[in-house]
Write a structure and sequence with these properties.
magnesium, Hydrophobic Seed Protein, binds adenosine-5'-triphosphate, about 10% strand, alpha+beta, binds magnesium ion, two-stranded antiparallel sheet, seven-stranded mixed beta sheet
Length: about 475
Amino acid sequence: MISNKPMDIPCSLQERKILEKIALAAKDLRLPAYLIGGFVRDKILGRRTKDMDIVCVGDGIALAHKVAESLGDKVPVSFFKTYGTAQVKWNELEIEFVGARKESYRQESRNPEVTEGTLQDDQNRRDFTINAMAISLREEDYGSLLDPFNGMEDLEAKIIRTPLEPSQTFSDDPLRMMRAIRFASQLQFTIVPEAFAAIQENAERIRIISQERITDEFNKIMLSPKPSVGLDLLYKSGLMKIILPQMVDLVGVEMQEGKGHKDNFYHTLQVVDNIAQNTRDLWLRWAALLHDIAKPATKKFEPGHGWTFHGHDALGGKMVTRIFSKFKLPMGDKMRLVKKLVELHLRPISLTKENITDSAIRRLLFDAGDDIDGLMLLCEADITSKNRVKVKRYLENFELVRARMKEVEESDRIRNWQPPVTGEMIMEIFGLSPGRVVGELKTAIREAILDGEIPNTYDAAYAFMLEKAKSFNLTPVK
Ligand code: ATP
Ligand code: MG
C-alpha cells in the first residue's frame, strides 16, 4: 500500500485516502502525478484547505475520469477540453486535475500559449515560490516534497518571492500583482523588495485584467485578518490609484491657518481593521472602507472654524452605488446595506450628546431597521483616537445609546415597523387612487408617531388621519 509511506506534509486520514486513490489511478495510466500549489502551502502552514490541485505529465482529464471511477459510479467529473482541466468533487474536497504545462506570454493579453511540459516547466509558471511546491504521488518517491525554488524556506521566513524574474512574472500575468498583495495580507507575509518594485513598475498592466478577478482578490484582502496590510500595499504599489482611485483621494493632510485635518486614508484603514476584529462580514468591512469616501469631495475650510465635510454621508451613499457597479459587486441587498450604513454613520454620534429625545432614538431605529447592529459596529470602529481616555469615553457614550435604543425598542417596537395605517387603507377610506395626497397623508401619520405626537396605535393613527385629511378637503366615503 502506497499510503503507508510517510508524507512530507501533514494530511488527514481522508486526505491520505484520496491521495492514494489518485496515485493508484496515475500508476495505472502510467502518468507521473503530483499534488501542487495552494494545498501543499496551506497544509504546511496548518491552514484549513479544501481544494487540491493535481498536476500530471500527460492527460489530466483522463486521470480525473480514472480517479472518479475508482471513487464510485456516482462521482461526477466536470471538464474543459480547451483548457485541459477537470474537476472532481468528493465529500468536502474539490480536486482539480491538469496536465503539466509550459507557458509563453504575449504582451497584450494574459492568455498564454500553452504547450505540454514537464513538472519543472509547470513549477516555473507558478506565481510564487510558496505556491510552486509539489508532493510526489509517484510510487518511487510517494509523499516527498519537490521544492526547486526553496518555497519551504520562504514559508518559514514568511516571504513572497517569484520563482522567475519578478518583472517578467508580473508582466506575463498582472493578476499575480493582486495575488501577491492578497497573500501578504492573508498570511501576513512580506513581499521581497525586488518583487514589490516589479509590482510598482508593472502596476499599469492591471488594466488588462477583468474586473471580476480584481474584485475577487480585493475581497480576499478585505476578508483577511488585518485588511490594512493589503490596502496599504495596494496604495504603495500604485494599484489602488488604478482600481479604486477614490481611496487615494483620501490620502494626506491639508493645513490652513495652522489647522489640519486627519489623514482620511490611514484613518479609514484603521476603521477597517477595527471592524475586522469584530466581524467577518464582508459587507460591514466594505461599509468601513467607504464610510468617509466623500470627504475629499465635500471638504471645505471655514475661516476661524476649521475643516468641515458637510454632507459627506449623503454623497458617500451615492458613491457606494457607483463603486459597487464599477467593481461588479452585487447591486441588491448588499449594496443597499453598505449605502445605508455610509449614509447613517454620523447619526449614532449625534445621539451621544446630552438631552437626546426618545423621538431622535425612534427615528434612528426606524431608518436603520435591522441594520442597526451593523451600524453600531461601524460607529465603534470609527473611533480611532490615540487617546485612550477619549476612546473609553466614546465607547461608553455608545453603550448609553445602545441602552436607550433598547428601552425605546422595547416600548415602541420601531425596528421593522410599518405605520398602522397603510396607503391602501387611506385610498379605500377616502376613495382615492394612488397619488401625491395619499403619500402626504401616509408620511404625516408616520412622522407624528416617530415624533411621539401620537401613540403607535391604529386608533390614534386613524383619528390623526381624519383630522389631517380635513386640510386636504377630504372626507371618508363610508
Ligand atoms: P487560494 O485557493 O487560497 O485562493 P491558491 O494559491 O490555492 O490560493 P488557486 O487560485 O487555488 O490559489 O491556485 C492554485 C495554484 O495555482 C496556486 O497555488 C499557484 O501555484 C497556481 N496559480 C494560481 N493562479 C496563478 C497565476 N495567476 N499565476 C501563476 N500561478 C498561479
Ligand atoms: Mg486553491
